[in-house]
Amino acid sequence: MRIIVAPDSFKGSVSALGVAEAMERGIHAVFPTAEVFKVPIADGGEGTVEALVAATGGQLRHTEVRGPLGSPVHAHWGVSGDGATAFIEMASASGLPLVPKELRDPRFTSTYGTGQLMQAALDAGLRKLVIGIGGSATNDGGTGMARALGIRFLDAAGADLPEGGGALARLARIDLSGLDPRVAEASLLVACDVDNPLCGPRGASAVYGPQKGATPELVTELDAALSVFARVAADATGRDMATASGAGAAGGLGAGLLFFTPASLRPGVAIVLETTGFDALVKDADLVITGEGRTDFQTAMGKAPVGVAAVAKRHGVPVLCLSGGAGRRGRRRAGPRHRRSRQHRAPAHGAGGLHGPGSGPAGSRRRPGLPPAQGGSGAAVIAKGKSATDEGC
Predict the structure, then answer these.
(1) Residue ranges in 90-215 assigned as alpha helix (H)
(2) Which of 143, 262, 366, 386 has the greatest CB tally within 10 Å of its CB?
(3) Residue 176 within any structural domain of the chain
(4) Strand, coil or helix: 184
(5) Is residue 273 part of a domain?
(6) Residue at a domain's end among 268, 299, 315
(7) Are strands 319-323 and 287-292 parallel, antiparallel or unpaired?
(8) Contact (CB, 8 A) for 59 and 53
(9) Residue 116: helix, strand or coil by DSSP?
(10) 52-66, 110-124, 344-358: range with lowest mean pLDDT
């Protein structure tokens, strides 16, 4: 029996590799002779660098940078096995876990440390950068990142604004003259797991601000400040990126990268799955097991379990998703039998659903050696619900 375990991290608890190892132990406890392949997965947030370094046989590096509140943090980044590509994870430099809960206020947190990691990669001679932008503590539109690369953000009197998203309400002019010229020579591929625009009801402040410490009043204030930033940045760069898909990711870091660098945004899980050669691994598998810390409405927006399930569906391989919790709406839709400790069948996702030949009850092909599904044990257990607590972007 060939089983692929491809979980995301359980944020704040255990890394994707740690989850994969735990899954392997559980499988061997039941099926001692099973062939288990561990493929840690990430979608642009925590664990992205680790997954990409492991997939390419690369190396981890460490750099001291400014954390979200300005204090020094030791952030990690990676270099691919061929030495050609830098892997950067903004969560390592500007992530939410770096800010104690009692100090979380996205008016003041900054992405400056993420820009310093980019600078470290450029200093190392690397010009191809893959940047994961999930799990942020920030709402500054990527202005901290841009400052680290030499851009200035000025008020009406020509003075530099303080860092953080709140000060952007006073932004009058952006000075691009100091931008590191090496940025223009670089290729930036941004691993982004959401498609939110910068502003509005689906924007960075409204959707992700509350989990970073924003009250309803602060959400309104921050959204207005990002609107000012979008207008001034469009005037300075000649690019209108506020409504671009993913512009609202990581508190607007997606927009900042699009405004100020030659970046392109792609779903993070797709980048990781391609780099790991996941399609070839799944082709001959009997079962795929994925997982994440919390399965809710954000999962359907491109999180790792959906990306894993989509690949497995193409090959007719059944999928299990093990989650630490499910969104409240997901539990209600699953019916009264569902509890967090149980698996449950997912509702259809999209036109064809996550169920398809080999992954749904009607069209599945049970692989030799696998026990038949009984009771509530479905072939796919990806939940669909709603929660504002997942640390996505």
Answers:
(1) 90-94, 112-123, 143-148, 182-185, 204-208
(2) 143
(3) yes
(4) helix
(5) no
(6) 268
(7) parallel
(8) yes
(9) helix
(10) 344-358
pLDDT digits (tens, 9 = 90+) for 231-285: 999 999 999 999 999 999 999 999 999 999 999 999 888 888 988 889 999 999 9
Same domain, 300 and 194: no
Cα angle value 307/318/348 (rounded, 5°): 65
In a domain, residue 287? The reply is yes
pTM above 0.85, yes or no: no
The Cα 256–Cα 250 span in angstroms is 10
Tokens read off for 371: 């026990």
User: 75, 40, 35: which is closest to 56 by C-alpha?
Assistant: 40
Final residue belonging to a domain, choices 268, 292, 314: 268
**CATH number for the domain harbouring residue 250:** 3.90.1510.10
Contact between residue 9 and residue 20 where contact means Cβ atoms under 8 Å apart? no
Nearest to 385 by CA among 342, 340, 327: 327
- Domain extent at residue 300: 1-40+278-393
The backbone torsions φ and ψ at residue 125, rounded to the nearest 5 degrees and listed phi first, read 85, 5
Examine residue 314 and state whether it is found in any structural domain, yes or no: yes
Residues 263 and 378 in one domain: no
Query: What domain count does the chain have?
Result: 2
CB 45 within 8 A of CB 392: yes
In one-letter notation, the amino acid at residue 317 is: V
The rounded percent of the chain whose pLDDT value lies above 70 is: 82
Same domain (yes/no): 282, 369: yes
Tell me the pLDDT of the chain averaged across its residues: 85
